[in-house]
Design brief:
GO terms for molecular function: DNA-binding transcription factor activity; sequence-specific DNA binding. Keywords: DNA-binding, Transcription, Transcription regulation. This is Transcriptional regulator. It comes from Wenyingzhuangia fucanilytica. The chain is an alpha+beta fold and 303 residues long. The protein folds into two domains: 183 residues, Sandwich (Jelly Rolls); 114 residues, Arc Repressor Mutant, subunit A (Orthogonal Bundle), CATH 1.10.10. Helix content is 48%, strand content 16%. The strands form three sheets. A five-stranded antiparallel sheet has the order 2-9-4-7-10. A hairpin with a 2-residue loop joins β5 and β6. α5 crosses α8. It is elongated. About 5% of the residues have low confidence.
Length: 303
């Protein structure tokens, strides 16, 4: 895997112009220009920089992950430092838009250095890009234009503070627009919940819980071709519960069936469900049901 420690080496690989600032690059395709993009396949790459890019498709659709999207309204994509990216010729497309790249050290000493880590969309995978409406696109373009003006000017002691402020505004709007996307894509959310539940069902039916322990949510998300954070955020918006909460509910549901078998102790039930420590199982069960596993067994045991 190729890793780029400096911003300039990463931009050179991406066929973007050399930066005006050693830790910041702003490039906007204007007029008949196209956003530069390597045309050949790329091995997995990573960098120490953040990337925010807006891809405007000129014609046609493209498949991202397992979902077909119409990109004519444009897609905003966020990449965090050390996040692995890879592409091949099957996803080549003409594009307009902008590309903002800044080294993580550019944020050092600012409030945004910590705040940016709270934006989950920097850990989303490519098929979870933010799809902008025409109105949203104009709002983002206006902010990027302000950043580019400051970037192209002779920079002074106020430049970095102004650019950081505009970046902060851009990310706040992106967060708002993602909220809208989560709410508007209920069909996809329902599909994700159904697929997640199917993965859990298969995990239990194959007896993997006894072999591997409690299901690993990240592994399940990878099988579903989505990132763990995006899966959890989407389910949270749609159902009010995260993936961990859905997993816990499934474990408790499985536990109820096993508890009504009188030949198994509480510890055996816990181990059968993949819990390393029976005490943790008992605490989780009581937290969700309001009574302990023993009390549940006494209350519902067959006469």
């Amino acid at each position: 895997m190729k890793h780029f420690k400096t911003l300039s080496s990463y931009l050179e690989y991406m066929q973007l112009p050399r930066p005006e600032h050693p830790m910041l690059s702003v490039y906007t395709a204007k007029g008949d220009e196209f956003l530069p993009c390597p045309r050949e396949s790329s091995p997995p790459i990573s960098t120490d920089s953040y990337s925010i890019s807006f891809k405007k498709i000129i014609k046609g659709n493209i498949n991202y992950g397992r979902t077909k999207y119409d990109f004519t309204n444009g897609a905003l994509i966020f990449i965090a430092p050390r996040q692995v990216v890879q592409w091949d010729s099957s996803i080549i497309f003409e594009q307009k838009g902008f590309s903002i790249n800044f080294h993580e050290d550019f944020l050092k000493g600012t409030a945004l250095a910590q705040q940016i880590k709270k934006y989950n969309f920097f850990s989303y995978s490519a098929n979870e890009a933010l799809h902008l409406s025409p109105k949203e696109e104009k709002q983002i373009e206006s902010i990027v234009n302000n950043i580019e003006i400051e970037y192209q000017n002779n920079q002074d002691e106020f430049s970095k503070e102004i650019i950081i402020s505009q970046l902060d505004t851009l990310l706040k709007y992106a967060n708002r627009f993602y909220e809208r996307q989560f709410l508007n894509r209920k069909e996809l959310s329902n599909d994700l919940l159904e697929r997640f539940n199917l993965q859990l069902t298969e995990y239990f039916e194959l007896g993997l819980v006894q072999k591997k322990g409690i299901p690993n949510i990240e592994e399940l998300a990878n099988i579903m071709s989505v990132s763990q954070r995006y899966l959890s955020d989407t389910l949270k918006k749609e159902t009010g519960k995260t993936t961990t909460e859905h997993l816990h509910l499934r474990l408790i549901d499985e536990a109820k069936n096993i508890l009504l078998k009188p030949n198994k102790s509480i510890s055996e039930v816990a181990y059968e469900l993949g819990f390393e420590y029976p005490q943790y199982f008992s605490r989780l069960f009581k937290k969700k049901e309001g009574i302990s596993p023993t009390e549940y067994r006494e209350k519902y045991k067959l006469n």
